[in-house]
Amino acid sequence: MDKFGLIGKNIDYSFSRTYFTEKFKKEQIDAHYVNFDCKTIEELKALLTNQSDVKGYNVTIPYKVEIIPLLDDLNKHAQSIGAVNTIKRLSDGRLKGYNTDYVGFQKSLEPYLTKMHEKALILGTGGASKAIAYALELKDIDYTFVSRNPSKDQLGYSALNAAILSKHLLIINCSPLGTYPHVEQAPALPYRLLTKEHLLFDLVYNPAKTRFLKNGEEHGATIINGQGMLEFQAEAAWKIWN
Q1: 13 pLDDT exceeds 80?
Q2: Whether 188 contacts 73, CB under 8 Å
Q3: Structure confidence at residue 163 as a pLDDT band (50, 70, 90)
């Protein structure tokens, strides 16, 4: 029986285990999926060394970037992005990192894109945001990062005004704000400035409609949650493992 798993921290809530367990059952695949909850980077190192029977991993917060030095090789997309969400154990035992987040985001976003969406705001600067930025580059969409602690070429939330929001009609939340159980949290946007021309995408999928998305919807914006992205990236990971 093949073994696969998810690497992360505090991941009981995880989409991946439920998704793959149901997939294996439905498609009669002789495999099982395990959560590997690593509290420290030392636990993560030990896991990769000791679990030599695991054929592939998904990787989630907070290890998408930190795991890179522990791998033997990187796919070109993961290398360009600088973050990994999928690992394959090669036939010689080496571990190779991939990124399927950008694929999942692209496929989920494409049906909603119009010519108006020339500029985007990416909320958050973690590992997931790197894949989003890469996907936008492939679509020739200009983007700016928004951070609570902005560095050069980034914006702080207090800088977001009518002029900026009128030009950036695509807004992607890559922060964990609004994730269950903290469902009333949301990025500190001036939501009153949103319009029906705005498209809001939230990588959060639990709850299905976050406070960020609700606030956008109240002002006529089109909204997308992270469920479709997750399913597309999971299927892309499955193709890599097999």
Answers
A1: no
A2: no
A3: very high
The model's pLDDT over 28-63, given as tens digits with 9 standing for 90+, comes to 999 999 999 999 999 999 999 998 999 999 999 899
> Comparing C-alpha atoms, which of 33, 32, 40 is closest to residue 8?
40
pTM to 2 decimals? 0.92
Phi, psi torsion values for 127, nearest 5 degrees: -60, -40
Tokens of 74: 């990187």
Domains present along the chain, CATH in parentheses: 2-99 (3.40.50.10860), 102-229 (3.40.50.720)
Q: Specify the pLDDT at position 127.
A: 84
Separation CA 25–CA 213 (nearest Å): 33
Specify the amino acid at residue 224: I
Helix (H, G, I), strand (E, B) or coil at 6: strand
Counting every residue written for the chain, the total comes to 242
Please name the helix (run of DSSP H) or strand (run of DSSP E) that holds residue 97, with its range, or none.
Answer: strand 95-98
- 68-77 tens-digit pLDDT: 999 999 999 9
DSSP 186: -
Q: Which residues pair with 58 in a beta bridge?
A: 6, 86
C-alpha 125/C-alpha 145 separation (Å) is: 7
Cα 81 → chain centroid: 12
CA gap 173, 161 in Å, rounded? 17
Which residues carry out catalysis?
A: 64
Q: Which two tokens stand for residue 114?
A: 């119009």
Quick check: 133 and 142 in contact, CB under 8 A? Answer: no
Q: Is 197 helix (H, G, I), strand (E, B) or coil?
A: coil
φ, ψ (nearest 5 deg) of residue 139: -95, 5
- Amino acid letter, residue 208: A
